[in-house]
Specification:
Number of helices: 9
Low-confidence stretches: none
Mean pLDDT: 97
Strand order of the largest sheet: 3-2-1-4-5-6-7
Order of helices and strands: EHEHEHEHEHHEHHHE
Oligomer: single chain
Number of domains: 1
CATH class: Alpha Beta
CATH architecture: 3-Layer(aba) Sandwich
CATH topology: Rossmann fold
Shape: globular
Helix content: 40-55%
Bound molecules: NADP nicotinamide-adenine-dinucleotide phosphate
Number of strands: 7
Strand content: 15-25%
Length: about 250
């Protein structure tokens, strides 16, 4: 129970990687306050699974790209629980297109959710962590932030931004004993990758030394580690969970 009694917020816990992290943290004793944006039924399923397993969690609707809504969400959370021990900026979207076909709204949407959303939530949560002189923030980036990927200039830019954001924040918050790290999954079996055409999937697998997609559990275990006391001396780092892609 390495997170026993801790209050941890996570964005995008209704599905995929976020759901796996939420379930893992709850199984390890945390009370997880997770968000969803549209899929209330999926959020309910996550909540039910956690409660059935004897864990503790709550779900709330939050559009992470909305600055004011994000500030209110964390104010309310701390008002009710008295503190926030960890934040996982997981919510993310793709809107793939080749550059010459990419619409302005596809660029803006991906940057607003993936990058501005992480800023909105970290800014809101850090205020309370700074006062408490403790806290742990983990941001989800991606292998494509480093390798690039055709058709994903908006997504790769947003995720590369997350790496710079993580490094800058780690310096800024270190004097208050707050750690800030990023986890960079490779290609993980979720809704985000389920829609890949067969040929793209085959080509992808040929680039992964371990020869398979990763599982959500393999990402969740690293996030849990970074949020734990075992990772107390790790900050400003990007941990790659990608089956060996370089
Ligand atoms: N899957 C991969 O292979 C992979 C690889 C590298 C990095 N990642 C990153 O890992 C994270 C999770 O990916 P995933 O594959 O688990 O995604 P996913 O299955 O598509 O789930 C996305 C989650 O984010 C929430 N969300 C989406 N837009 C939001 C918004 N505007 N405001 C608040 N919440 C929002 C969704 O809520 P609703 O359920 O309500 O829609 C859902 O809970 C993302 O940051 C992604 O970029 C994924």
């Amino acid at each position: 129970m390495k997170h026993a009694g801790r209050i941890i917020a996570l964005t995008g816990g209704s599905r995929g990687i976020g759901r796996a992290i939420t379930e893992r943290l709850a199984a390890e004793g945390a009370h997880v306050v997770f968000t969803y944006v549209k899929d209330a039924a999926a959020a309910r399923k996550t909540l039910d699974a956690i409660k059935e397993a004897g864990g503790s969690a709550e779900a709330a609707q939050l559009e992470v790209s909305d600055f004011e809504a994000s500030q209110s969400f964390f104010k309310d959370l701390v008002g009710r629980h008295g503190r926030i021990d960890g934040l996982v900026n997981n919510a993310g979207v793709t809107a793939d297109n080749l550059l010459l076909r990419m619409k302005e709204e596809e660029w803006d949407r991906v940057m607003n959710v993936n990058l501005k959303g992480a800023f909105n939530c970290a800014r809101a949560a850090a205020r309370y962590m700074v006062k408490a002189r403790s806290g742990k923030i983990v941001n989800l980036t991606s292998v494509v932030a480093v390798t690039g990927n055709p058709g994903q200039s908006n997504y790769a830019a947003s995720k590369a931004g997350i790496i710079g954001f993580t490094r800058a924040l780690s310096h800024e918050l270190a004097s208050r004993a707050i750690t800030v790290n990023a986890v960079a999954p490779g290609f993980i079996d979720t809704d985000m990758t389920a829609g890949l055409p067969g040929k793209v999937r085959e080509e992808l697998l040929s680039r992964i030394p371990l020869g398979r997609l990763g599982t959500v559990g393999e990402v969740a275990s690293i996030v849990s580690f970074l949020l734990s006391g075992d990772a107390g001396y790790i900050t400003g780092q990007v941990i790659h969970v990608n089956g060996g892609i370089c």
